[in-house]
Amino acid sequence: MPTSFSYRVVDTRGQRTRGVADAENSEGLTRTLESQGFLVLDVAPAAQLSGTGVGAASRHVRRRDVLEVTRALAAPLGAGLSLSRALTTAAHIVPERVSRLLEDLRARTARGDGLAIALDAHANVFPPMYRGVV
């Protein structure tokens, strides 16, 4: 199953670029980027490169925001909404710094990742016990 990777590359003009892409492994993504003419500086699971992609979504989320996310999801899930709709609904309730995180979780689950795997991408926000319960 593909995993999201954050990457940093330099193009043929010397311009540095950051991005996020799905690949089976970091070596495969590196080969793909190199075949497109990029000089690859770094490739790592998306949650590990701060300031890019997923890391940017969860960088400013505080521990008490986890409680807010849990509460915002509890009501729509309890009412029988699908996980995708519950995440979208919750994203409109919480502050923007948390909204970006929920939007990323929704995108990951929409493409087939389980919620636990999506939470693992934000290990800096959701503690191991929380992720384990899910």
Structure report:
With 134 residues, the protein is α+β, with helices and mostly antiparallel strands. The chain folds into two domains: 3-49, Ubiquitin-like (UB roll) (Roll); 57-133, Type II secretion system (T2SS), domain F (Receptor-associated Protein, Up-down Bundle), CATH 1.20.81.30. 52% of the residues lie in helices and 17% in strands. The protein has seven helices and three strands. The protein has helices spanning 26-35, 53-58, 63-78, 83-93, 96-110, 115-120, 128-133; strands at 3-10, 16-23, 39-45. It has a three-stranded antiparallel beta sheet with strand order 2-1-3, covered by helices on one side. The longest helix has 16 residues, at 63-78. The radius of gyration is 16 Å and the shape is elongated.
What labels would you give this structure?
134 residues; alpha+beta; Ubiquitin-like (UB roll); Receptor-associated Protein; 2 domains; 3 strands; 52% helix; 17% strand
